[in-house]
Specification:
60% helix, Arc Repressor Mutant, subunit A, 7% strand, mainly alpha, binds FE2/S2 (inorganic) cluster, 67 residues
Length: 67
């Protein structure tokens, strides 16, 4: 599902970014440009980020703590 239409960012893109080290919305903005245009996706992007971090913490607790 698309999170950010302006920049073609999907939930999968955010999940992949979290698996490769993204730990904040600001980091996702730099890596994926999510929420850097109209900003309407910011809350949803943050929700997806938190969910991805929660999943990572359950799967790989040591990775989730590294930033
Ligand atoms: S929908 Fe993400 S910046 Fe517009």
């Amino acid at each position: 599902m698309y999170v950010c239409i302006c920049n073609n960012v999907t939930e999968r893109d955010i999940e992949d970014a979290v698996r490769s080290g993204a730990r904040s919305l600001e980091c996702l903005e730099r890596r994926l440009a999510v929420s850097t245009c109209c900003g309407q996706c910011r809350c949803f992007a943050d929700d997806v980020l938190r969910e991805a971090l929660g999943s990572l913490e359950r799967e790989e607790p040591t990775l989730a703590l590294a930033s």
